[in-house]
Amino acid sequence: MARILLAAFVALILVGVGPCHARPAPQHAAMSAAKGKAAAVDGITAIYNFGDSLSDTGNLLREGAAGMLQYTTGPPYGSAIGGATGRCSDGYLMIDFLAKDLGLPLLNPYLDKGADFAHGVNFAVAGATALDAAALSRRGVSVPHTNSSLAVQLQQFKDFMSAHTRSPQEIREKLARPAGDGERNLYNFGRMAAGVVEATALVPDVVRSVTSAARELLDMGATRLVIPGNFPLGCVPSYMAAVDDKDPAAYDATGCLAALNLFAQMHNVLLQQGIRELRRAYPGATIAYADYFYAYVRMLRDAGEAGFDAAALTRACCGAGAGAYNFDMDRMCGAPGASVCARPEERVSWDGVHLTQRAYRVMTDLLYHKGFASPAPVEFPRA
């Protein structure tokens, strides 16, 4: 089993308070029409985001991307939005679509020191992990891309809040407005994996890291959390290419690796147990579970209706290699020899690890508009 390290945690806080080829993400009219407005949806006027490449909008680019992630900072990344911005996709991510749906401008990365943070801050860094580098190193797992783990991002958030408020009480008030003020706080956390055997042993520690971070945020005054489970790893081209099992019995009815999906579900069961413990400890907070696993499965199941190419659901749009998954760890998307499919909007996977802009839009709809995050993190107006 190839050793693959995939960080997949993300965290959002919603509050109702008043290196090459890179460019700022275009603020399309639909995504910036509400800029300057107060509380466009459900009283939310700011977002604070933590995570990895699922939601990084430019922090790793500013840290200095290296290794396999160096190609994410240049073309063809960002091709659907006019150029690379540090987003690991051909275009926008779920965090971008959520901001759009809330009527807010796109979230600026924390390391863009000249940016406007009036509507929140994005602390996510591509390659970041839920466990810090030292903890992973003790288990023989290296983190070559960044040291900006969940703990580092959480400290950056604390530093930012301290610099922009006068006291811990003001921070609590900022994070926990009265319900009548329409405020919602949303934290989404996922997980990481390092090969099935190693990752199985790591899962309890990863879950503890996630729930401990959630406890800190709750202690700071957060009142509403959403903690999502993991994606079905057995449907992700990079994992499928690494295993490359020739036995048809290894695959489920969706065409995904059953064992890897079982592992992801094991993680999700432990995570939900941790969520139940958080609910008991913080009865005054709303702590929901967002089902990333079955939202992804639903996206695959309804692929044809969503306009995806049903014959290429587990094949990367951008990559290299003659295999079934168009994924080669040594020739990632953007590297010499890699190519891009003709219609990225018809693919689920962009580069074998990350999703296309179209897939992120579908996932956002499923999570925030179609009940796969429950209870609903945001009360959107009914159509």
What does this structure look like?
The model is unreliable at 1-11, 16-23, 32-39 and 178-195 (pLDDT under 50). The chain is globular. Helix 3 crosses helix 12 (357-369), helix 7 (196-219) packs parallel to helix 9 (258-281) and helix 10 packs across helix 12. Helices cover 33% and strands 10% of the residues. The chain has a 3-stranded mixed sheet, covered by helices on one side. Strands 6-7-10 form a 3-stranded mixed sheet. It contains 12 helices and 10 strands. With 383 residues, the chain is of the alpha/beta class. It has helices spanning 29-32, 59-63, 94-101, 133-137, 150-163, 168-175, 196-219, 237-243, 258-281, 292-301, 303-306, 357-369, and strands spanning 5-8, 10-15, 46-51, 120-122, 191-194, 224-228, 286-290, 318-319, 339-340, 373-374. The N and C termini lie far apart (47 Å). Keywords: Glycoprotein, Hydrolase, Signal. Belongs to the 'GDSL' lipolytic enzyme family. This is GDSL esterase/lipase.
The mean pLDDT is 80
Which percent range describes the beta-strand content?
A: 5-15%
Sheet with the most strands: spatial strand order: 2-3-4
Number of strands: 10
Alpha-carbon distance between the two ends: 47 Å
Major beta-sheet overview: 3 strands, mixed
Name the structural class.
alpha/beta
CA gyration radius, whole angstroms: 19 Å
Tally the helices. Answer: 12
Q: Spans with pLDDT under 50 lasting ≥5 residues?
A: 1-11, 16-23, 32-39, 178-195
The shape is globular
Give the proportion of residues in helices. 25-40%
- The SSE order reads EEHEHHEHHHEHEHHEHHEEHE
Keywords: Glycoprotein, Hydrolase, Signal
Family: Belongs to the 'GDSL' lipolytic enzyme family.
GO molecular function: hydrolase activity, acting on ester bonds
Protein name: GDSL esterase/lipase
